Backbone:
DNA sequence: ATTAGCACTCGAACTCTTGGAGTGCTAAAT
DNA sequence: ATTTAGCACTCCAAGAGTTCGAGTGCTAAT
């Protein structure tokens, strides 16, 4: 049974009021603050109904109501309207984003910081998933005997490198040979199509002792694979302590404890980013219990997608209390992401 | 007036008890827990004296005493004895340190994490100060038109690189020329002796248009300078929330807020690392108000020095509550640092 | 379907009380 | 000159009790 118009308004109002006051909202307060042309008793009936349907709940018998996860979900999906930021707000964000940065990763970091500052929440960004990008250059450079640098340039203009250990008697010439041979065969290949076998077969007819060759190749391969790893960057954890929602030590502790395990968070973000294909290419939301990470039951995740190229993208977003101004936060994320994308384009 | 023997013992006992119980300690409790062969009244007199001298203080009239910053300082400087860790504790630490890591920065990170885990406090490491290290290789590699990678290998075996923008009409050959010319002249020079002028003069007689050359050189120079920047790595901030010392939101907020500004912390650590020349090459301590960072009035800093080479070193240490088991923590830091140094050596 | 009225609930905030651990001081003992 | 026993005093922490107000659900009337 779909909600009738007034019930929708009531739910909308409850979410708005609760978000702004942080107090459970009661029927009387609702009447005072909004122009329902009915009495509080009527609202009480509506609220009882909304509770039965699972949209709102009461912390205890004689308190007002607060939105449940489902209530927030309904609000986000069908009730709210996302407004554009005002010109001032846009200006504010733009001014914080440093346009002089010329390395993509720094650019993304900068946008992430901006996001945390403007929302007041934890922000995060995930490195682009590079499995679809392809190698444009691969060089192995001798650093000193026993130590080499594998340097890769990927299609997105991303540069990755890794120091690898090699047998100390491998010579400069041998490395150069191996390097150019691998490069010749692998250039243009997507990262996820490169396997140990591909790498090995790319150096077929080189007159270098097998075991030695094997080891160098293995190191080169693992360097390539490492370039494909997920990287997450979290920013502004301490801001969570400012929020009344986490003003009890227990909650705060659990939350920051979980966030400190960044690879766990990364895994989760990656998961939800894969789940939804963002409808209009915009944002994905997870609310409260929908989040499977420990200690984030009172949080919401909102992530958007930024693009390095048409096919290579990463995520940027926030983790905030589920009691947040979704409309505003979404438009902030949206604007930051848009600005970020523009700046990335300018770099190419 | 130096403290007489019993007063020293009293102060020692007060610090020990307060650290382990987190309760202000009174004369009776002291008698109960320690073998002073005097009455509580005598201890009361001693305590009054110690208070007059500024070693201890009372939170309020009818509470026990707690050590003042000065009291901790006395304890650390002259009272405590640093014990070796037990074999089990050493084993514990060793097992957490991953010996298979083969990149120095990862090694340091790993040691820092271990330090936070074993102490339960925030740990930190500062990248080595590289100004004294010298260039062993410098290459500029073309990535794509308009984009190049400056790659530096420093004497300590450290590899640094930076993507730089260059005019898009600079050709591969030109870059190679510039690169090898800079490398030839700069190899062997300590970082802090490299100025823009040095770099410029190293490419004196190259037949490349001046303005273009200038820009490439400037970028190369700034890449070199960037390699010399201080980098700090902080780990385990969330653990501070577990401590009773920061169980009030206000303190916790302020603390984490300050720690979130890592460049500020870096600046401070650098400062104190420069202040003291560690006597026996071991650790430096700052207690309570001695720390000039906001919100760290109830903390102590302990840092030690790790060495990449004889002349190149960085810092590793912890930030914990000033109410900590100094003796134990110091030996933990000491052991982690020793282990780290050993592992670094193994890499060379 | 809506509303007025009413009895009932429950937590937040306050006050009050009590108990215990601590102190400083004084006067006697060593 | 130290040390100690004794005592009056202080003050916080914790628990118990009280009050207050915003909320609720239900019923009967509109």
Residues:
């Amino acid at each position: 049974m779909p909600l009738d118009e007034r019930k929708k308004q009531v739910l909308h109002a409850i979410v708005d009021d609760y978000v702004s006051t942080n107090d459970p909202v009661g029927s009387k307060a609702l009447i005072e603050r909004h122009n329902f042309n009915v009495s509080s008793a009527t609202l009480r009936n509506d609220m009882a109904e909304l509770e039965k349907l699972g949209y709102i709940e009461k912390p205890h018998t004689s308190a007002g109501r607060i939105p449940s996860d489902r209530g927030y979900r309904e609000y986000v999906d069908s009730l709210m309207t996302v407004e554009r930021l005002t010109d001032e707000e846009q200006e504010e964000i733009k001014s914080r984003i440093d346009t002089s940065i010329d390395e993509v990763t720094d650019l993304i970091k900068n946008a992430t910081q901006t996001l945390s500052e403007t929302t007041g929440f934890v922000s995060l960004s995930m490195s682009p998933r590079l499995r679809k990008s392809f190698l444009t250059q691969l060089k192995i450079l001798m650093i000193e005997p026993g130590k080499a640098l594998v340097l890769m340039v990927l299609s997105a203009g991303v540069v990755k490198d890794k120091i690898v250990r090699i047998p100390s008697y491998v010579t400069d010439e041998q490395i150069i040979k191996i390097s150019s041979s691998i490069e010749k065969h692998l250039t243009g290949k997507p990262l996820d199509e490169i396997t140990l076998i591909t790498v090995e077969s790319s150096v077929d007819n080189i007159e270098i002792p097998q075991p030695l060759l094997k080891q160098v190749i293995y190191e080169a391969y693992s360097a390539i694979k490492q370039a494909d790893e997920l990287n997450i960057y979290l920013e502004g954890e301490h801001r969570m302590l400012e929020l009344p929602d986490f003003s009890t030590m227990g909650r705060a502790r659990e939350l920051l404890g979980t966030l400190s395990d960044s690879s766990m968070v990364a895994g989760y973000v990656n998961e939800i980013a894969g789940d939804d294909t963002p409808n209009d290419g915009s944002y994905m939301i997870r609310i409260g219990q929908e989040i499977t990470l420990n200690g984030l039951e009172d949080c919401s995740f909102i992530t958007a997608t930024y693009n390095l190229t048409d096919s290579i993208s990463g995520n940027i977003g926030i983790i905030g209390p589920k009691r947040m101004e979704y409309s505003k936060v979404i438009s902030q994320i949206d604007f930051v992401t848009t600005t970020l994308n523009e700046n990335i384009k300018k770099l190419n």
Remarks:
- The beta strands of chain A are 56-57, 66-67, 122-126, 135-144, 147-154, 159-165, 232-235, 283-287, 299-307, 313-321.
- The longest strand of chain A covers residues 135-144.
- Residues 24, 26-29, 44, 47-48, 58, 61-65 of chain A lie near DNA strand D (CB under 10 Å from a C1').
- The mean pLDDT of chain A is 92.
